[in-house]
């Protein structure tokens, strides 16, 4: 499918797609680029890439597919560095959770004849680093493609085919619309999880230890989400600021309403909401999206 | 261990402990009491109880252990109805998520010589009803006992031993302290999950369908929590109002701080929090509380 693939960043997503490409022989060679020797050595040890380098221009040299798998704040610098070294006609893609900011950061740097196909796999776990990846992470999950107007169809199809091999279903969205949808389905839940776990860490010492001890009652699920990569998520909230603040505003209003209902003992309002939310769950189950990712990295969890 | 056990309510928790008692032959006979014929028929069909009745005084007649497994708002009425029929020396226990309100609702109705041992298993799933129970639900989980001052030790030990057979670890807490801890570990996470899923249901139609479609990116976990029993949770928030509002106040402050950080693009503040929350997750994993309940009711999930 590809001759030479350059992965800029080899964390959970980068290492998982590398495993897929190895399994299905989708690339003649895969080169990984990362900032630290340590990450690259891990990738080599796992035998999921053929070559490694810390130099971006070296990584993309001769590559027909370049995939950016780093936090969104790094995109501009990476695009600038890779631009002069890109092979004419190469496809550049990414896996970032915010798409308007990705387009804005990357497109201005790319020379004519380079195809930028922004993408986003709706899959992941709370773990990060090359060891945390696994080849069936994307199985049955969505891969969203948000091509800027005028992107060549052949380039889009090549990226789509790669992710189909990974087991993903493909969908096409406008970048701005993608960012709005993800603000509520992903960014807001993460923000809330981070907040609530943070609130718990500020509690008086005697309660704090008990919070961990008795976390199986709901809190546990939030700690899992709030264990996600700090830098990646810092960048997401800043890059998708407008949509996140808009959704957070709505949430705050709704929360104030519930607070009032609890204060005045208005059980009807509470129960009515709790029945409505059960229906959404049924929708999620019907859409087949209720099963969490299968093989958790057990070594890391221990 | 017991001669005759009366279960008032036979949902997720009641039916799970009934299964444990059956498996380990802890009771000579088990009688289930529920409001609807349908629930009782299900319990009979599942063969987890020996007798059924819709009349509370009939259920507790001759029982040496009475376990209340219904929403907290029903406790007062149930205690009042059972009081005249209770066998002298009987133990009354419960499994409710709020303990001060449980004590306040039950104790005034109980005749002298009856032992009230309030309890709370820190275990559960989002499913409800007798079919959703399973015998290893409590395996490795905490069972919290919050005895009012002066409760007889022998009665406490009998209840503790039952839950040890279910695989639980026992801990003793003051009722008010229990309610504070659970407000942050359980009640607030549920409130937030209900809110965020509710916010999503109020979105414009075009986004709403996509929220379900792309829920695997974080939202899914909230929909699971927000599928919990509406009546049970309505009662919990109202019964534990003060502690829930206190914790909600802290959360709102913290959320306002994060909102500001996002608005002004203060990445440092965000990243610092996100690193702190990772540590809490490590604590949860070290405490062995990170693994979600094992056998989900798959029939119901399909």
Key words describing this protein structure:
homodimer; 302 residues; alpha/beta; Rossmann fold; 6-phosphogluconate dehydrogenase C-terminal fold; 2 domains; six-stranded parallel beta sheet; 9 strands; 51% helix; globular; disordered C terminus
What would your notes on this structure say?
2 copies of one chain form a homodimer. Chain A is α/β, with parallel strands linked by helices and 302 residues long. Chain A folds into 2 domains: 2-173, NAD(P)-binding Rossmann-like Domain (Rossmann fold, 3-Layer(aba) Sandwich), CATH 3.40.50; 177-265, 6-phosphogluconate dehydrogenase C-terminal fold, CATH 1.10.3660.10. The first copy, chain A, has helices at residues 12-23, 37-45, 56-60, 75-82, 100-106, 153-165, 175-201, 205-213, 219-225, 230-239, 241-263, 267-286, 298-301; strands at 2-8, 27-33, 51-53, 65-68, 91-94, 115-117, 119-121, 142-145, 169-172. Chain A has a 6-stranded parallel beta sheet, with helices on both faces. In chain A, helix 4 (75-82) runs parallel beside helix 5 (100-106) and helix 7 (175-201) packs across helix 9 (219-225). Chain A is globular. The relative contact order of chain A is 0.11. At the A-B interface, helix 7, helix 8, helix 9, helix 10 and helix 11 of A face helix 7, helix 8, helix 9, helix 10 and helix 11 of B.
Short description:
Two copies of one chain form a homodimer. With 302 residues, chain A is of the alpha/beta class.
